[in-house]
Amino acid sequence: MLVASNRGPVSYTLDTDGEGGALRARRGGGGLVSGLSAIGPDARAVWVCAALGDGDREAVRRAGGGLLPDGDTGGQRVRMLDIDPAVHADAYNGIANSVLWFVHHMLYQTPLEPVYDAEFRRQWASYEAYNRAFAEALAEEAAEGAAVLVQDYHLCLAPGMLRALRPDLRIGHFSHTPWAPPDYFRLLPDDIAAALLNGMLGADRAAFLTRRWAAAFTACCTAVLGPDSLSDTTIGVHGLGADADFLRERAHRPDVTERMAALRAEIGAGRRTIVRVDRTELSKNIVRGLLAYRQLLDDHPEWRENVVHVAFAYPSRQDLAVYRDYTAEVRRVADDINSRYGTPGWTPVVLHVKDDFARSLAAYRLADVALVNPIRDGMNLVAKEVPVLSEEGCALVLSREAGAYEELRADAFTVNPYDVLETARALHEALSLGPEERADRAKRLAAAATALPPAQWFMDQLRALEELQPG
Ligand code: G6P
């Protein structure tokens, strides 16, 4: 069995001070890695991923292009592909993150964007080359009749390419993002829209996080390729849940407890806490979240001094100028709230931008309210993780555009993510909830959030794929 994804379960940094350049291995980030880490050290499974920086490339060189050392991967069998850095940059920053991510999250400001020009076509050629590199590596690695699970929007063409090389394989594709509705998807040039869909339909099975994204995909196939295009591919839905066992164990280690004490000191005694944890990602809607919090302080002065918004916005995709600008805007708005409302004893927004998993878990444990307000999100695991860990039972303010909405809506305060006034009202209601109702809701949220833990999510996909005839 093979898994293929751009980001793998491990990433390396090169410590240039060390003699010979010591390599440090770290766990990869993001929802995809959290879900797939459940594979664990299975001797039959190889995870094929891309080298993402100089540290990764050095690790590949030292491994002679073969499997990475066990000690770095927790026993998981991982093969990293050293794809030409310029090709990778065009495919990842150019096509995957600046085009496909924008299409599926509907992020374009359409009077000026997108512009599909000669530069875009050059990047598209790199996206094809990058997908071919994966298809060839998978074809080489796979035993007769093996199952291959290809992940996400970086690798839409790989299933079709792999099918051509190895008709014996069972190929699955899984999308960790939303899928755009046809009218928006068709912003893409016609030939490229068709190539992406045909590439994915090269899989025996294409699966999604929610029914909504699966329905959008089939609607795109019908609109772009015609109603018969879906006849050879099965569509699946697997709503990835939180890993309660892992989270509870990890969140009770001493490094998390230490960070709870530090956070409590930052928050101040007797105050409510509104927590959010995100990559600093355009689709996460962090700025409108801050504006809603500001509105709350305006509309309900009784919360001043009595609540703190703990916002962790970790660096992401900083090669892209729009992400750097967005990060600056998040800081600016947070500083503005602090200077306008703060007092000597109260900092209304505690913003941290340095990635720290243990501190995220500490914030989850302290949360009274979790704010998850993306403008569009494949699932959003934070919405599922906070209710599992919050000690007092947290209330959830949740965007109706997050995949998690399908499963959590009954016990959340749901909002239109663009409506700052509505979000402010939801924050007020969530903060005002009595302790019993809050605990009850949190219990039901946690149960819904953990209904399909990662190991089962993965096994369900594998089993469904193995039941199909290849091709
Ligand atoms: C989303 C995508 C994943 C991706 C993650 C982190 O969850 O669906 O494929 O790995 O974001 O983004 P990055 O660009 O840092 O890999």
Describe the structure concisely for a colleague:
One of its GO terms (molecular function) is trehalose-phosphatase activity. With 471 residues, the chain is α/β, with parallel strands linked by helices. It has helices at residues 31-36, 54-62, 70-73, 85-104, 118-141, 158-165, 182-185, 190-201, 211-225, 244-251, 254-267, 286-299, 321-341, 357-366, 382-389, 405-408, 420-432, 435-449, 454-466, and strands at residues 2-4, 10-15, 22-27, 46-50, 77-81, 147-151, 170-174, 205-208, 234-237, 272-279, 307-314, 349-352, 369-372, 395-399, 413-415.
Keywords:
47% helix; 19 helices; 471 residues; alpha/beta; single chain; Rossmann fold; 2 domains; seven-stranded parallel sheet; six-stranded parallel sheet; binds 6-O-phosphono-alpha-D-glucopyranose; 16% strand
Give me the CATH fold name of the largest domain: Rossmann fold
Radius of gyration from CA coordinates = 22 Å
What is the CATH architecture term of the largest domain? 3-Layer(aba) Sandwich
Bound molecules: 6-O-phosphono-alpha-D-glucopyranose
Terminal-residue CA separation: 16 Å
Measured as a percent range, the helix fraction is 40-55%
Q: What is the name of the CATH superfamily of the largest domain?
A: Glycogen Phosphorylase B
Highest CATH level, the class of the largest domain = Alpha Beta
Average residue-wise pLDDT: 96
User: Main beta sheet, described?
Assistant: 7 strands, parallel
As residue ranges, the low-confidence spans are none
Global structural class: alpha/beta
Overall outline: globular
